[in-house]
Amino acid sequence: MTSSETGPDLRSRLIDVGVDLVTREGANALTLREIARRAGVSHGAPRRYFPTHLELLSAIARRGFADLGDRAVAAVDDGTASPRAQVATLGRVYLEFALGNPGMYELMFRHDLLESGHLGLRDTSLPLFGVLVELVGRARPDADARAVAGVLWANLHGIAQLWGWGSLQLATGTDDFVPLLRTALDAHLGPEDGR
Fold first, then answer.
1. Which of 41, 72, 105, 161 is least enclosed by beta carbons within 10 angstroms?
2. Are 113 and 121 in contact (CB under 8 A)?
């Protein structure tokens, strides 16, 4: 065991390598062996910090949720826009993140990672959903904000997936997802300005 295979810096380096790998090559490229190779350590070194493959994948996905959360907070931070406008901004940021980071986005929503509550991924993902619930509640005080936010998120997730596959462009004949976002917002929050 070399000094490059121990210490707190190795844990961060393994996650950094994983983030780079998922960004460049997608979620399927994330093996312990490949991450170790690219980090320049033995294939057993990651197990010192991540006893299971899922734990390393969760740490990488947490970075994705943190990045998405930072982008979302920066986009709606001053809070001067109406709640509906903030939801629209949040939706746009979500779709831009999903389409600009398809490997990370896929990893972030892997069922096996999210279901493993002991891996702590929920602690990173749920606060962002909480922001959406709060904004939806302010935009639609008459509705069950959690339910409306859930179906809106499902709609956005569907747009991201189908857009990423090229299906929506083909079906709708558009090359811009913004009209689809607007339509989803109208469907879940009502028309803008009550029109």
1. 161
2. yes
